[in-house]
Task: inverse folding
């Protein structure tokens, strides 16, 4: 199975039709590269705020309210492209109105068979909390996709090991991470989180990113990072864990995912964090004991 993750340069579409034309063009490129799964970035829906007047663009509450009219066209667009291109499309994320002016950061997964799967972002960043508008999700999912199991961790969620571990224990061998970061530090945090999740769970992790500047948007103003596909850092995989990465202004990083290689590599693994995970739950390791210097004689 091939997967393509986007380094998506934020634009300013004049209307939904212009947005749709670009999505068709971008996803057709991923399909031409042989991708069975294509992953777009977090907050992609906020690009649609550019279709409104400047006073709406500049105000996040107004932007979030305005883009709700595009929710059904959004689902129809990406569902249609998934069927047409015979490809799973992870449509970044849409800030979805859940009522009373509250929103969830929802990642939609549209399948070639016409199914609509989704995962809400669970952990909120400082920016999201400060808006006073966004709520975290309350359900953790794993999807059956072409004979394998996959999960989604939206950006910041990739930095938390326990929910991803729960997805791994439910059978996930692929973690998809739509992300949006504005600083080098933020980009590094998500990248390191993705590498750590690949290592400790012996799974593939595929991260998409936003890129460029959108000074008209309070949420998409600056975008930093590279899209990449990661694997465990062990025999049978790259030493740095990087299967593919964008660079030189490439829009997609494309990698072949060999799930059988996990079992083959486990048999000759230098380490097996996924198998050895329960070792950290030993009773003696559940709570650290403060041991004053010199409290025990040297052996």
Result:
């Amino acid at each position: 199975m091939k997967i393509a993750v986007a380094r998506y340069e934020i634009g300013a579409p004049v209307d939904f039709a212009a947005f749709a034309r670009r999505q068709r063009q971008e996803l057709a490129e991923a399909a031409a590269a042989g991708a069975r799964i294509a992953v777009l970035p977090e907050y992609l829906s906020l690009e649609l705020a550019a279709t409104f007047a400047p006073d709406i663009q500049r105000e996040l509450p107004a932007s979030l309210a305005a883009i709700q009219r595009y929710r059904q066209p959004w689902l129809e667009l990406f569902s249609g492209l998934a069927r047409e291109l015979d490809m799973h499309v992870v449509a970044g994320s849409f800030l979805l109105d859940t009522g009373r002016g509250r929103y969830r950061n929802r990642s939609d997964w549209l399948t070639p068979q016409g199914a609509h799967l989704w995962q809400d972002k669970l952990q909120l960043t400082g920016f999201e909390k400060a808006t006073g508008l966004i709520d975290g999700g309350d359900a953790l999912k794993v999807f059956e996709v072409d004979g394998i199991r996959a999960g989604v961790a939206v950006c910041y969620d990739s930095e938390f090991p326990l929910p991803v571990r729960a997805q791994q224990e439910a059978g996930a061998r692929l973690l998809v991470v739509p992300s949006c970061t504005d600083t080098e530090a933020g980009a590094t945090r998500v990248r390191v989180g993705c590498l750590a999740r690949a290592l400790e769970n012996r799974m593939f992790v595929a991260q998409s990113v936003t890129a460029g500047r959108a000074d008209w948007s309070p949420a998409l103003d600056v975008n930093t990072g590279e899209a990449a596909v990661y694997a465990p850092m062990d025999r049978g995989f790259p030493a740095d864990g990087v299967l593919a990465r964008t660079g030189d202004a490439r829009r997609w990083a494309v990698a072949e995912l060999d799930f059988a290689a996990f079992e083959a590599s486990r048999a000759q693994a230098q380490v097996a964090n996924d198998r050895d995970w329960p070792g950290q739950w030993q009773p003696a390791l559940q709570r650290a004991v403060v041991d004053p210097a010199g409290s025990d004689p040297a052996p």
Q: What stands out?
A: The two ends are 55 Å apart (CA to CA).
